Amino acid sequence: MTQITDTPGTANGPNQNKNIARYLLRHLREYGLLFALIAIMVFFQIVTDGTLLKPVNITNLFLQNSYIIIMALGMLIVIVGGHIDLSVGSVMGFVGALAAVLIVQLGWPVPVAIAACLFTGALIGAAQGYWVAYWNIPSFIVTLAGMLVFRGASLLLLEGQSVGPFPPSFQLLSTGFVADLVPPLGAGVAALTGANRVNGLAMAVGLIAVAVIVWTGLRARTQNRAYGIEDEPTAFFVARNVIVAGAILFLIYKLSTFRGLPNVLITMGILTVVYAFITERTTLGRRVYALGGNRKAAKLSGIPTERLTFLTFVNMGFLAALAGLIFAARLNTATPKAGFALELDVIAAVFIGGASMSGGVGKIVGAVVGAFIMGVMNNGMSIMGIGIDYQQMIKGLVLLAAVIFDVYNKQKQG
Amino acid sequence: MTPLLEMRGITKTFPGVRALDDVSFSVATGEIHALVGENGAGKSTLMKVLSGVYPHGEYDGDIVYDGQVMKFGGIADSERRGIIIIHQELALVPLLSIAENLYLGNERATAGVISWRETFQRAEALLRKVGLREAPQTLVDRIGVGKQQLVEIAKALAKDVRLLILDEPTAALSESDSQALLDLILELKTQGVTSIIISHKLNEVRRVADTVTVLRDGATVATRNARTEPVSEDQIVRDMVGRSMEHRYPARARKVGARLFEVSDWSVTHPEHAERRVVRNVSFHVGVGEVVGIAGLMGAGRTELAMSLFGQSYGRNAKGRVQLNGRDIDVSTVRRAIDAGLAYVTEDRKALGLVLDETILKNITLANLEAVSNAGILKAQKEIQVAEKYRQAMNIRTPSVFQRVVNLSGGNQQKVVLSKWLFANPKVLILDEPTRGIDVGAKFEIYTIINDLARDGKGVLMISSEMPELLGMCDRIYVMNQGAFVGELTAQEASQERIMSLIVTE
Lengths: 414, 506
Description:
The structure holds 2 protein chains of 2 kinds. Chain A is an all-alpha fold. Chain A is built from 17 helices and 1 strand. Chain A is about 75% helix and about 0% strand. In chain A, helix 3 (about 55-80) runs antiparallel to helix 14 and helix 9 packs antiparallel against helix 10. Chain B is of the alpha/beta class.
């Protein structure tokens, strides 16, 4: 066919502008997500008169959303693999209940109980994954059944009562903070900004995170250059990094003027990095994307599709169990209602983050940002005193808008 | 004769690409008009303009039909005028009956209530007209592709077709089904139906077409009247590719070495009906550097044979012996078959061969990720090097290996599939219809790749429904019919007639 476009990257002036426009159009989704989160935060910061970004509320925001984010990591992988898991809310509640029974009622040592709970989660995932992977039973059905079964099972375990409180060592899972290991840095920053006290470790972690993000960005850029991959225009690269770095440092600084780094944030951060690495840089991750993209082709390429599907559910069960423990630790009690309807928030986060219902598409970072978008909206609307009725409606519409935007964008690109 | 259809100065652009450039195309009443050209030449786009898929206003130029300028706003408009297009991918609902499919969207109903008596009666008459002996109540997924194609034509007749457009109607059909279909088109012509047929099979074009129009790079290159002067295939090919193709099959120094791959007494049963043996006691061998063909009709069990050998991807109760270099190998799973040195290039590259939404790079390394990773961690640079190497070696036409496969043409997609399997470094390659739906130029390239493989000492087993292709490429040809091998011919002995007679006499 006759090409009537210009060769990219060779000309200056108007062509360069055109290239930038084209690049932006093609990557609208990724930028859009990030800027949507920032815009939402700015919006609520203004309408809540600055309450949203108060140090205590930021800490709260992380604590409140940690279990959704942790489950979103597993859900993204399940969805990329071409399935869905509706049972995570119930499994999370069940594992919280199990923890309460083991620790509070039976007096098991906390570490042993935690290990047992995580194992149980993985086992539940395995039980569901078995039917999906090896019997080809639709995951929607299997996990819908699981959702009912484990909701009932938590009621049974707790005999319909709330069970608590947990010993302090268990509560640390959620409400604990990491001790300040580098107070001099904190003192230095405090002297600069005039704050009362600043947690040095938090600042150190923030600075390191920013350094790593910028460094990997630059490295990827030189590599792309070397292989002639279409490059992000320099202005975009700089702007994006400045905004991301600024946002991280801002949040970290706020956290450090409160009580420093919550344990949960560390858990969440490490898990996010680990899962991003697995999905993007390992053969395991690549195979899951291929499986979701075209199961038959993946199978005929020698990929053990059944076993992989099975493993995505085992992993999901494990993460749901972890989320259940964190949730129980945060409430300091296990209730039969724990995790109710939470699977919908998790699934919504993954789709807002750009995953495709048909599998094969989606990114860990997208799912995490998607979860934060939901989280900030929950938090912001609660501060504003908007009723749960409107909150639900608004969240539903945001989910729909995000997916419509996706589809529209895809059609436009042809 | 007055033209039934005249498309004048049609130009259609997509962002960045001019797909049609001032194309003029005229079809006389009552003729069969063949539209040929390489993939991407603009044939399908032109037909989409005609049928209203691209509505009036999205293209420049005029469509004059029946002496009037048409402004179709959608397919429904063109269908109302009797212009009906049958796409390559059939548009039938598999779990509805033939009769329901025939009248889908056009139901025999009063006030929304379907009259089944009328539906079935009319359906029966239509099926008789197209020569399909099936009950109208039969579900569409119970009949083969060849018969489904006839159902599509019957469906067109149900809509009072005047101009029938067939996009590669015989691409998925066996030789005999193709013949029957072409006969039907000729028969419809006598009943006053004008047809446009898009095809890559030039012998078929020559057989039925009254006029041949060749498109190249979005423009009309030539329109030849096949009734006044015979049109040769070479002539058409030259028009299509813009150069002369002296040899359709590249030459190869034929040197067959020792026995490389040997299958003895291989049997497989149907996955659901354990008593039905789909492959029956098949034995064959492939030598080092040998290209061996398997000829046969659609449904002879060739693909089933190949897939069952490749990790039992088809069927159950596989029995028999598989040897490589004289040693038994385990082919019970795809992984084991690959590790043993087999590769299978599927017949249906979109559904079974490629992850369409992924990049060229990710598709190429998929079957051998171990070679581009260390302890399960992918080596990005190594992957790019590998993909680049194959992009150049295979001449995959793409700006970069980060292009998604879905954007490539059929020929380039097939090269990606071949790259994937070559990177897995097999000793024996089973190629199932390696050139289906690929244009002449790309076919030649695929043939060259096959020859290179043989020269490098690989064994190639090639399944094809195009007999000239087997005759042009293979050292030896097995003939398969109803699940069993019914003959073996050397390159010297083989001819289309001998292959057909082996099939028919069985």
